[in-house]
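Bench notes, afternoon.
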Amino acid sequence: MKNLKMFLHLAIKVSPSYIILVISQAIVTSGRLFANVILPKYLIDELIGAKDSNMLLLYGGAIVCSNLLFGLLEKTLKRAIDIKAQYVKDMMNRAMAQKIMAVEYSYLENPYYLDLKERAVFAITNQSVLEQMIVSLASVLNGIVTITGLLVIISTLNVLLLLALLVTVAASVGLLLGFNKFLRDMFQNIIPVNRKYGYYIDLVFETALQKDVRIYDMKDLLTDQITNINVDVNRWFAKFHHKEGFLRGGLSILSDLQATIAYGYVGLRVLSSKFGPKIGIGSFTMYVSAVINFTSTIGTLLEKIVNVVQLIGYLDPFVEFMELPDAKEETGMVPFEGSIEEVKFEDVSFAYPGSEKLVLEHVSFEFHKGQKISIVGLNGAGKTTLIKLIARLYHPTSGTIYINGRDIFEYDYKTYMARIAAVFQDFKLFDFTIRENVSCNKNGDTAKIDHIIRQVGLEKKVDELADGIDTIFGKEYDERGIDMSGGQKQKVAIARALYKEASLIILDEPTSALDPLAEADIYNNFNELVQDKTAIYISHRMSSSVFCDKILILDGGTVSDFDSHEHLMQKKDSLYYKLFMSQAENYQLEA
């Protein structure tokens, strides 16, 4: 019920008019049914009785007009609902997109929450769960209103008949509750199976993987994995169809029992007064119609309730993901003014959400404006994690990060982030123009972009393009788009960082696709470009370390040293010395 309540709140927030339209359609549908159950009684009674032509015309006209009116309303509402449904879907997709961009970043690197995000997106975009849920709830409402009205009509014949029908309804509900419990259990147990299945299917359809599939002949391996998972999936669906068959069989028997009781009693009341006053043909027609519609509506209502339960299960990941805390909720109130003068880590430790293992442990160091800092360490030492803490993508598990003497989380988020630019190893260029990729907006300063393009060494490539910096990058959406080499993409990413004019610039192994000499050239040029700004460099290669003021050595998540290149090279047993000397033959540098 919590998920259903949250869903209804979100749906009303997104489009209250859509909810009103769907409810109106349910009411109109019920109204048409009641008109067709009740009005024919009076027409038939008049045909058999007085046969007054005016009354016959009145009743006949009422039947025709009510059907025309309700039919017109139904079609009008359906057209409006179809238009609104697409709007609701677009808005839900937008809400998901906004949530993904706002959620605490650490969740997006946790496998559980990555899976949760994928399932939530799939439910909204591929299964249209939200639209189905609204329509199903409207059908449930329609069924409840219809059944209530029909029961009122049937009760005018005999209260005991009403009670007998309610007993069969209670039995149907009992079957439904048992099936719903099975569905909830199935949803919980099938999640890891679906996760594995989705993973392997994604692998098979991933274009980049096809080279490895062919080179290493992985076709049989992947096919076997998918087949094994299919066995588990089919086992669960076999259970589902068995339970569903039992449910439908039970409901069918109860429906037949309802019809037998109702038709038998109505027939007896026409033929005999033993069980009450005889009823006329008109009343007989009305009661029979009421019973027929009651039986069919009960079946439809129960199916819709089952459908709602299934949809709530599909909505679980969406609701859970939407309730994750937003990173920006922790924004402070202090606007960041001026430049970054000092960065200080004080006993900072970090572990990912849901994990007790510390990635960084009791890290303390500080550096000042204008300094160039290199962070060195083996894979998994925590280098990128440290950078993401500065960028407020993560929140320290313990300890505090100070900038200009204040806890970074006390600063207003937007003004704080305006002071930081970063190029990560897994940076992303979008299928936008080069201008938009560099400036991150549609109206980037042309002269400034051209200047930066020259600084990073891309002017030759850009000059060859007919549209220059307004050329689309990538061919995903525009066949006129261009492709770039890995090194060229990295230069565009660096240009983006330079364009921002932040006071702290971070390079987290963005040049890993370049050869050592090209990387050294990029770092040397970049060091000149940042001038008096503070810069942090991370690289497996040591070319960035020599020209830095200080080098932070991370070893197993802790700081083992923090000193200049010259002083560290005097420590023959240090990790830095060993790493540098192992790569010295690749560089024309003096140790």
